[in-house]
């Protein structure tokens, strides 16, 4: 079953659940609308990888918003966004732990023969296809900088 089909099925289940699935229904509808928007923009059906990109972007937007709400002392909105992120994470591949990410970064640094922070682009070019959708870009960036500044 494709990711889009799974979203559609889960949306139907959330509709049947009425009150219990209200937030879930809202989040799934929003994601499906964004996928449709990208498809219209690109004038073609999205691949599984592109659907994952849309989902990852949705999670990133919510994480960024969550940081702002924390600064603004809005725990109610932070909690709501945490629930939305939990729902979205169910559709993304298993996320890499920091140790697994460090191993992949070390391999990418070795493979790209990077020696300084100036070579960050080379490392990211090798690394990103391996971690796409499986790790937060901000964390990847931080770990790569750490490796290159040793």
From TrEMBL:
> Per the record, a Pfam family?
YqeY
Q: Which domain of life is it from?
A: Bacteria
What InterPro entries does the record point to?
Asn/Gln_tRNA_amidoTrase-B-like (IPR003789), GatB_Yqey_C_2 (IPR023168), YqeY/Aim41 (IPR019004), YqeY/Aim41_N (IPR042184)
**What name goes with this protein?**
Glutamyl-tRNA(Gln) amidotransferase subunit E
Organism field:
Sporomusa silvacetica DSM 10669
